[in-house]
Amino acid sequence: MNQQPAPANSVSRILTASLIGTTIEFFDFYIYATAAVLVFPKLFFRAADPTSATLESLATFALAFFARPLGAAIFGHFGDRKGRKATLVAALMTMGPSTVAIGLLPGYATIGIWAPILLALFRFGQGLGLGGEWGGAVLLATENAPPNKKAWYGMFPQLGAPIGFLLSSGIFFILSKTMSESAFIGYGWRIPFIASALLVWLGLYIRLKITETPEFMKIIDKNERSAVPFADVFVKHTMAITLGTVITITTFLLFYLMTVFTLSWGTSALHYTKSSFLIIQMISMLFFGLGIPLSAVVADKYGRNKMLVVATIGIMVFGLMFAPLFSTGSLAVTAIFLSLGMFLMGLTYGPIGTALAGIFPASVRYTGASLAFTIAGILGASLTPYLATMLAHNYGLAYVGYYLTGVAALTLIALIGARTLMTQNAD
Question: Superfamily assignment of 11-423 in CATH?
Answer without folding.
Answer: MFS general substrate transporter like domains (1.20.1250.20)
